[in-house]
Each structure stands twice: as C-alpha cells, then as structure tokens.
C-alpha cells in the first residue's frame, strides 16, 4: 500500500483528494480539453456512454482505468449519465493553466443528480423533474417534492398507501431517504426508484425547521399553512439541505412551500393509476390517456395537465368553473384560436426564470423570455374584454412586466447568441463605450485602406499589401521587385520566396488598440449581461405568476380543442350519488380504431338505491374491460374539468376510484398472483366510502374455478351489504354470479351481447340487461386458430361438465354454505385438525379484516401442506 502512495502523480493526488469528498458521485475531472474519469468511475462511464476504456500509467504501480470525452461534448454525455441514475460531480479548472507554473487549481463546480438538474438536455419539456424526500414518522409518513427547474415545492404527510400513490403520481427522478430506513423503504415502495440515502440527523425536526425558516426568511412556517405537517416539513428540510450539499445555493425562485390537500382531490391508488393507463403503460407502444387528451401548446401547460390528471377535483364549484370556460371557448371559436396563437409563442418561461435565479441563463434565452412576455400582453387584453367572469379573472392576474421587456429590449440585440463569448450580445445603443470600441474594432478595414493609400503614395510602391497572421500580427508585404524603395524605419519581420514582410510603428500601435478593444468589448458584454441577469432576479415571482396563469389557460383551451375535435359533451353535475352515462365511449380506444369503424358506445347507470352493483358477464374479448375503464375515465375527465366522450353524462362527484384487474401479475415481487389480487381487493374493501366508484375486472381468476366463484360472490355480497353502498361495476366470466340478483336487490345483471352464427361468434360490444347464458371461451380459441381436434375435444368436455355441475347446483352449494357448518371432520382423531379447530374457534370474526382473514387461511393451508409433506 505504501509504495502506491509514493507512485501517485501530482494530478492523481489532486484527483483522489477531490474524489474523497464526493465518494457517491461519478467525478468528471477536467484535464485540458477533456473530461476524464478514473478507476471504477471510468469502468461505469465507459459502459453507460459506450466510450473507450484505456489505462493511465500502463504497467506501472500507479496504473488506473481511464475513460474521457471532449469538454465541449458535455451536453451530449451528461444527460446519459444522469438518466442512468448516476450522480455526477463536474470538476473544472478554476484558473487559467497559462497563469500557473504548478498544477492547475481544480474544484467541483456543480453536482448534477437525477433529481437536481437544470440542463435542458436532461429535462423533458412537458414533464416535471422532481426530487422527493420521504421521512417515516411515528404514525404517519412525510413526503416532499421539489422541481428545482420550475421552483415548485410541495409537501404533505399521510399513510404509506397515500405516499405510495403520490410517488406514482409525481414519479420523482430521485428519492432521498434516511440511511437507517434503506431496507424498509425498498420493501415498502419497491426497487424502481433512484434513491439516495442521507444521514439520519438531516431528518430532524429542529434542523428542518431552521433550514426552512432560513431559506424562506421567516420566523415560522404558519404563513404557508404547513405548520401542522410535522413529518412533511422534516422531508422538505431534508430536500433543501441536499440542494446545499450539491452546490445549489441560488434558489430565489423557490419562494413558496405548498401543501397537497388530500381531501380536495379524488383518491386513486397506484393500482388504479396503472390499470387505467393514465400516463404510462406496461405494454410497449400503448397509447395512454395523456397522449389522447393533451392538446396543450406550452411546456407549462403540459406539466400542469399531468397534475390535474393526478389530482381530479372533488369541489363541484371548481369543476363547474373549468367546464364553464370550456363551454365559453366552444361558443367563441375565434377567441380560442387567437389565444392559442399567442400561447404558441410562449416558451418555457417558468424554467427560464428559474435559470435567472440560478444564474444559468444565456443571452438567447433572455431574448426568448422577453418575446414570451410580449405575447402575454395581447392575451391579457383579450381576456379582460370577454364576458366570462373566470377568464376576466385570469386576465386580471396576468402581469404585463413592462419594465422587464423594455430593459431586455434596450440591453440585448435581438439576435443575441447562446454563448456570450461569441460577441454581439449587448446592443451598441445601450453603452456608448461599447459603441466606440466596436467602431474601432470593426472599422479597421477603412483605417487600413487609408494607411495603404498613404504609404503607396509616399513610397511609390504600387503593389503594397497590408494583412495579418497569428504569428506577426499586422504587416506590410512588399514584392522583391520593389525592395529597394522600402523606407529605413520599416522593420523586416519575414522573408518569403518572392516578397518580404515588414512592420511599422503605426501598425504596431494600431494592432495593440484593436486587440485591446476586442478584450475590452468581451469584458463589458459579460459585465452588462451579468448586471441584467441580477436585475431580472427582482421579477422572478411576477414571471412565475404569469407561467401559472398561462398553464391554466393553456389547459382550458386544450380541453375546448379536445371537445371540438372529438365530439365530447359537458357533464352535468348533480346531487344524489348517481352516475348516468348515455352513449359513453372509451377516449383512447376510439382514437385507435380504423377510420371507417365506429366505436360501439354504451350506457351505464349506477346509484346507491336500486342499481348499486352491475354484474357484467360475457366472454373474453367481448369488451367488458373497455366498458369498466371508460366509465372510470369519463368520471376522471369530468372531474378534471374536461368535457367527456359520451352523448350525455349526469353525475354526482366521486371521491375515490378503485379499479382491480384480476391476476395482475406481481410475480416478480415473489408473490402469487392470487395473493396480490386478494391484497389489492382487501385494500378496496377497507377503504370504500359512499361516493366511491369500484370497478372489478375478473376478480378471482387467479385460482381454481370454484374458489374464484366463491371469492367473487363473497366480495360482491360484502359490497352490497356494506353501509357505504359503493357504486360498483363487476366484470366476470363466471356466469354463475348472475344468480346473485335473486337474493340481493341492488345487484343487476347485464351482459356484453354476442351474436352466434352457425359456427362462429360476433362480438357486438353492446351492454344489454340480463345475464349471459354460457362462456364463449371455446369460440375464442377457435378464432385464435386452435387446432380443430382440440376444439372438438373441448366442446365434448364442456358438455359433460355442464351436465355434472349445473350452475344451479353450484349456486345452491354457495347459498347453503352457512347452513352446513357442522365441520364433521373435527370428530376425527387427529392432532393437526384439533389445532386447526382451535385456530378457527378462537378467531373473532367480527374484528377480522379481509386481509387478516386471508392470512389466517393461508396459515391453515400451510399447516395442512406441512402435514402432507411429512
């Protein structure tokens, strides 16, 4: 070990000292024109970036792996590293190598992590890039989300389920977790998140209060309405600490902490979000709801739409306000068109003003900011002159930012470059000194032409030429034929084959003047630009207000556009817990159908008094799932404030949407599909309310037929008898469940109609009253091209089964179960059965939750399996 230290080169010594401060990050070390990585970092970087891995000090004791790329390619390679989940420390040269005899001073200038990125190449325009922190409190869990690129900072606390749902909604790029909770976090929320583990002292109430108060420059957090969120504010404090640790200290754009009010939005758990395919799908190339309904034209609008989708409203008044604006736009198409024309001109002002705060904005972006603010002016005027109260209100809140526009306009050239070193950033009219220097630097041609004229006349040399090169600067070139006419005071600098080059005192002075002017121009431009950016910092909040209002307007225009293009209608919000959809369509499937194929629309009516549970039977492929999902999507879109795909909709607001799809595989987590399905269903049964909408699709499919039918029956019975009377659609291919309607008055049977021709089945995809007679599984197999002999055999087996197990017999079995509790096998003289008997007798069924009941059954099953193995 000792010898290795001796062999360390000065450069590697400096590298190792810096790397020691950032052990968890991949260090990009600037050496000359390259960013280099060494050791393990180099191995990682070469794999992620697909760049060559070489060795430094090959064969010597100080040999180390090496991989690098040119410094100007940073914007190509950095996003790839960050998207691969790496935290990247960028180590730059802090002084000019020409100015030092020893090793160049270096230091980390920025730490970019998946959750803390300001680079456009890493960020996606229509998505937020959230950094989250999770703190496990005594009874509740706190969570906070921050997007440093937009300044949004949100906080809340709640149950593990609620936090899980929020993580799905916000899908943060990075999650901060206390080190001691590493294992618990992964067990609770899964392995899919990029996590970073902080020391647990960071998650301390006093520390987080201090850091939050210092950042917001307040004495208490009461003004933000979060003072009671003990666990949430601990998470928020951890986020600010992490920003400080990652060299992000210019945070004037993070100027408020917003509470997420759980009770104000529709509750959807993560399975529902996944099953409805709102923003993502497990199927490759699948079209999601956001793909179909996103008609926004600005980046801010696109990000807000995702938020509205994740948090549909419950307050009727707020929903109606959105519907009214959409309705107004549909009546005033020319206003809609004008507004959209201006919104298109508004770039991402929310992220641009964040770049002002972090001082990472370039000249061209400042001009873009000004042009976007110019487009706000006509929008404000259009809105203030409408007859819509809501639109007038938005117009009144928009700010003209006149000083900002005038100052940028007066300071910068409209064609300002991205890189300030390219020159021509600051307008000559803005600075008289700059004007003079520029005329000096750029009028050299006239000056030199005049000098040439003068010297030609004085010397009589007709072929004089003035030019310049990098070695000698400016010179006068004389052909050899005129050599004898050269004045004595000219100094010879270079001899060519047929000419000689000279310099004169006047040329030398002029050259110094020009070079000095160019350096001075650059210095003045940088200084004036820096002053402008500093000054713009006073208007961060004004621009953020405009960004928020434009995002909202963009979404409402988008909803109107969507309704116009797809023939959507305004849902009518009523009192009384019912849901009536006439001619409902699935917004995503309808867009994917071939042009000439109409979507078969369906009616659905649910209430709590007469038709609480609809049992939908019908074969696979007949469209049962589509009817379930479209019902949920129509409700969700209505409560977002959008129009909906139907002929008419009358509905009371829903406060929770639950969807469960049978056998939704979670085998990768090591659980059986059936157990997962039961856990998910138990979570619904434990959380339903009187305004809930429950959609169950093929529940019980993950087990044998009789088990499946019994469980589906028991779940339906539970939902029917539960005092909440939650509105439920239950799709199943167990037609035995059709018998339930005889016993339970609020369960009604419907089926997805099928037309049987001589030897094939047509799916009409229409929901009609009444149960279906039998399953069409064999017909489906035939359509799929199953061999003829398999189909024949399946048909004969089906006939035998239908004889031996008529549905009547099965239904009677289910009905008579509770009369048949003699458990005669307990008379058997078997110690295991005695134990099982004790287990059951000592269980208090009244206090047992469905999950606990399943666990208990599982336990008994294990006992029996053990005995079987023995």
Short description:
This protein has about 850 residues and is of the alpha/beta class.
Residues in helices, as a percent range: 40-55%
**Cα distance spanning the termini:** 57 Å
For the sheet with most strands, the description reads: 7 strands, mixed
The CATH homologous superfamily name of the largest domain equals P-loop containing nucleotide triphosphate hydrolases
Examine the secondary-structure arrangement and name the CATH architecture of the largest domain.
Answer: 3-Layer(aba) Sandwich
Rough outline: elongated
As a whole number of angstroms, the C-alpha radius of gyration is 36 Å
What do these coordinates show?
It is a single chain. By secondary structure, the protein is α/β, with parallel strands linked by helices. The protein folds into six domains: 2-112, 3-Layer(aba) Sandwich (MutS, DNA mismatch repair protein, domain I); 131-260, MutS, connector domain (Nucleotidyltransferase, domain 5, 2-Layer Sandwich), CATH 3.30.420.110; 289-425 and 532-566, MutS, DNA mismatch repair protein, Chain A, domain 3 (Orthogonal Bundle), CATH 1.10.1420; 432-519, Orthogonal Bundle (MutS, DNA mismatch repair protein, Chain A, domain 3), CATH 1.10.1420; 572-819, P-loop containing nucleotide triphosphate hydrolases (Rossmann fold), CATH 3.40.50.300; 826-869. It has 31 helices and 27 strands. The chain has a seven-stranded mixed sheet with strand order 13-23-24-25-21-26-27, with helices on both faces. A six-stranded mixed sheet has the order 3-4-2-1-5-6, with helices on both faces. The longest helix is centred in the middle third of the chain and has 32 residues, at 505-536. The protein is elongated. Mean pLDDT is 84; it is low at 1-6, 664-671 and 817-828.
């Amino acid at each position: 070990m000792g010898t290795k230290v001796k062999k360390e080169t000065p450069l590697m010594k400096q590298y190792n000292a810096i790397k020691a401060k950032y052990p968890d990050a991949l260090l990009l070390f600037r050496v000359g024109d390259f960013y280099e990585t060494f050791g393990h970092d180099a191995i990682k970087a070469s794999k992620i970036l697909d760049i060559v891995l070489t060795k430094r000090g090959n064969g010597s004791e100080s040999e180390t792996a090496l991989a690098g790329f040119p410094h100007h390619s940073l914007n190509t390679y950095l996003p790839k590293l960050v998207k691969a989940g790496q935290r990247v420390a960028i180590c730059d040269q802090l002084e000019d190598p020409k100015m030092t005899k020893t090793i160049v001073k270096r230091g980390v200038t920025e730490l970019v992590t998946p959750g803390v990125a300001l680079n456009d190449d890493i960020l996606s325009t229509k998505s937020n890039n959230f950094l989250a922190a999770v703190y496990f409190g005594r009874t509740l869990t706190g969570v906070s989300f921050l997007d440093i690129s937009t300044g949004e900072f949100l906080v809340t606390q709640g149950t593990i389920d609620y936090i899980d749902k929020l993580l799905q909604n916000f899908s943060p790029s990075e999650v901060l977790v206390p080190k001691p909770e590493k294992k618990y976090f992964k067990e609770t929320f899964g392995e899919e998140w990029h996590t970073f583990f902080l020391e647990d002292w960071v998650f301390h109430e006093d520390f987080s209060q201090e850091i939050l108060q210092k950042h917001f420059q307040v004495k208490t957090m009461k003004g933000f309405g979060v003072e009671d969120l003990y666990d949430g504010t601990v998470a928020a404090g951890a986020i600010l600490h992490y920003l400080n640790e990652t060299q992000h200290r210019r945070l004037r754009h993070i100027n408020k902490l917003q509470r997420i009010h759980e009770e104000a939005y529709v509750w959807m758990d993560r399975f529902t979000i996944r099953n409805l395919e709102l923003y993502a799908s497990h199927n490759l190339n699948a079209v999601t709801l956001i793909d179909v309904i996103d008609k926004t034209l600005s980046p801010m609008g696109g990000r807000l739409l995702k938020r509205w989708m994740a948090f549909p409203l419950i307050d009727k008044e707020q929903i109606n306000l959105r519907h009214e604006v959409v309705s107004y736009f549909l009546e005033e198409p020319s206003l809609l068109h004008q507004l959209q024309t201006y919104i298109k001109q508004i770039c991402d002002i929310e992220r641009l003003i964040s770049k002002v705060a972090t001082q990472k904005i370039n000249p061209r972006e400042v001009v873009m900011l000004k042009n976007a603010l110019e487009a706000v002016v006509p929008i404000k005027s259009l809105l203030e002159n409408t007859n819509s109260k809501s639109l007038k209100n938005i117009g009144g809140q928009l700010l003209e930012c006149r000083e900002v526009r005038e100052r940028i306009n007066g300071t910068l050239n409209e064609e300002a470059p991205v890189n300030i070193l390219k020159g021509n950033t600051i307008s000559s009219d803005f600075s008289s000194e700059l004007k003079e220097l520029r005329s000096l630097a750029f009028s050299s041609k006239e000056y030199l032409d005049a000098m040439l004229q003068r010297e030609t006349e004085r010397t009589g040399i007709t072929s004089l030429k003035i030019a310049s090169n990098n070695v000698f600067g400016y010179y006068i070139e004389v052909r050899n034929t005129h050599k004898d006419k050269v004045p004595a005071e000219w100094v010879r600098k270079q001899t060519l084959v047929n000419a000689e080059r000279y310099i004169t005192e006047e040329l030398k002075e002029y050259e110094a003047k020009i070079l000095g002017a160019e350096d001075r121009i650059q210095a003045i431009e940088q200084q004036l630009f820096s002053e402008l950016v500093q000054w713009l910092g006073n208007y961060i909040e004004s621009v953020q207000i405009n960004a928020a209002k434009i995002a909202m307007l963009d979404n409402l225009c988008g909803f109107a556009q969507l309704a116009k293009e797809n023939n959507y209608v305004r849902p009518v919000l009523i009192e009384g817990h019912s849901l009536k959809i006439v001619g409902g369509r699935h917004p995503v499937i309808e867009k994917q159908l071939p042009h000439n194929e109409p979507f078969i629309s369906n009616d659905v009516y649910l209430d709590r008094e007469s038709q609480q549970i609809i049992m939908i039977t019908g074969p696979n492929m007949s469209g049962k799932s589509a009817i379930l999902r479209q019902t949920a999507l129509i409700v969700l879109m209505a409560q977002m404030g959008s129009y909906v795909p139907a002929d008419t909709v009358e509905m009371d607001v829903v406060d929770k949407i639950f969807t469960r799809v049978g056998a939704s595989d979670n085998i990768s987590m090591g659980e059986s599909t059936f157990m997962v399905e039961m856990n998910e269903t138990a979570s619904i049964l434990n959380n339903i309310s009187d305004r809930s909408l429950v959609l169950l699709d093929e529940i019980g499919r993950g087990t044998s037929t009789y088990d499946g039918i019994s469980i589906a029956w028991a779940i339906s019975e539970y939902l029917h008898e539960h005092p909440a009377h939650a509105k439920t659609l239950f799709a199943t291919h167990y037609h035995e469940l059709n018998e339930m309607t005889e016993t339970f008055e609020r369960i009604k049977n419907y089926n997805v109609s099928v037309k049987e021709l001589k030897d094939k089945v047509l799916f009409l995809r229409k929901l009609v009253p009444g149960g279906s007679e039998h399953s069409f599984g064999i017909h489906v197999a035939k359509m799929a091209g199953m061999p003829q002999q398999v189909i024949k055999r399946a048909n004969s087996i089906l006939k035998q089964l239908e004889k031996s197990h008529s549905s009547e017999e099965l239904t009677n079995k289910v009905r008579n179960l509770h009369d048949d509790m003699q458990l005669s096998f307990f008379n058997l003289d078997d110690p295991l059965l005695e134990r099982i008997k004790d287990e059951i007798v000592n269980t208090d069924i009244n206090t047992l939750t469905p999950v606990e009941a399943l666990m208990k059954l599982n336990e008994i099953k294990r006992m029996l399996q053990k005995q079987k193995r023995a």
